[in-house]
Amino acid sequence: MGGQEHVCNSGEQCRAFDPVAKHAYPTTDPLCRACLEHAQPAIRGLVFDYLDLAQLHEPSMSQAIAERASGSKERPIPISQHVEALQAEIIHVATTWEYELRVACHLSDPHNSAPIADWHTTLTKPVPLAKVRPGAAVQRAIGVIAPRLDRLAALPATAVCPAGIEDQPVDMCGWQAVQQLTDLHGRARAMLGRTTRRFWIPGECWACQAHPVRGVDGPLYRSEPRFEGDPMQVNCDKCSAYRAYPDYETYMATLLWPELEVAA
Ligand SMILES: [Zn+2]
Ligand SMILES: [Zn+2]
Fold first, then answer.
1. 90-117 confidence digits (pLDDT tens)
2. Is residue 246 classed as helix, strand or coil in its secondary structure?
């Protein structure tokens, strides 16, 4: 290879990896478009991950856990510590990069920002973001980050505590933050997957046309509603699309998915 063409920093994980030439997608940006588009829903999903993880703290809300806990002296403490640590990491990483983006994009502080004290005048002693409920903080941070992923990916290296305030500061680039946030989503879903029951159901996906394969679960599953009144949904494991369960019943009866109603 002659010219030193820059390729996507995702390397072998690049969503547009060239399997023949064995290199990530050529781009002058830190991450290629395909990688950013893959990261987008994962990072948006962190808002729900956080809320779902919070529910794991309340065993009575999940029958599956409640059944296991009743009649047992053991409290499910280890898992809850893991859950709390992951939640704390999600808040830390999301708000860290929310802050860096606010500085880079000259975004105003949240309107309910804490009063500015005179010692918070430099980048190393930033104005603290207003104290809000942790779930709301994640939502606010993702609301800043998700629409600006290309901007985040382009941020130059800056010293941050990677996963928590106890960490030694290290230099991280914005594109690494995109990967870190995407990984957090994967870790959250993995943790939730161990405690949330999935019911695989037959059928093929209306969105990505994924087919069932003999001997393999999926692609469609119905998630167990955890609260009375939760919507029943059918989900695709391959493309993460979901829709109302009654549509699935129509599909099973007619073998045709009804037209999706376009949200007004
Ligand atoms: Zn890529
Ligand atoms: Zn699908």
1. 999 999 999 999 999 998 776 444 444 5
2. helix
